[in-house]
Amino acid sequence: MCLGIPGRIVAVTDEARQMAMAEVSGVRREVNVACVASGPLETLVGRWALIHVGFAMALIDEDEAAATLEALRELGEAQEALEAMAAGDAALGERA
């Protein structure tokens, strides 16, 4: 399963290599935008994209980006709760 994380393209870093800087939840990372470029790369600045292993895979709108980020936060919280439950079960099992 592939998971794309929403990120906003904030700058073009290397036009020849089709590279841009994306900001994902406050962290900046250089990504390849070849999959989403359909004109001058400058037109991508300010746009949201789904980022996967260093590539912008698809352009999305701001509402979809916000909804996806919220779902990912909720999944993270659910994972933390499951891990805490598993740790609690393991601790109870050790006492038995």
Give me the secondary-structure topology.
Layout lengths: L4 E10 L4 E6 L2 E6 L15 E5 L2 E6 L1 H34 L1
Antiparallel strand pairs: 1-2, 1-4, 2-3, 4-5
In terms of quaternary structure, the protein is single chain
CATH architecture: Roll
Along the chain, the helix and strand elements come as: EEEEEH
- Average pLDDT metric: 87
Characteristic key phrases:
5-stranded antiparallel beta sheet; alpha+beta; single chain; about 100 residues; about 35% strand; 1 helix
Description:
The chain is α+β, with helices and mostly antiparallel strands. It has a single domain, classed as Roll (SH3 type barrels). Helix content is 35%, strand content 34%. It has one helix and five strands. It has one helix spanning 62-95, and strands at residues 5-14, 19-24, 27-32, 48-52, 55-60. Strands 3-2-1-4-5 form a five-stranded antiparallel sheet. Strand 1 (5-14) and strand 2 (19-24) form a beta hairpin. The N and C termini lie far apart (38 Å). The model has no long low-confidence stretch (mean pLDDT 87).
Entry summary:
With 96 residues, the chain is of the alpha+beta class. It has one helix at residues 62-95; strands at 5-14, 19-24, 27-32, 48-52, 55-60.
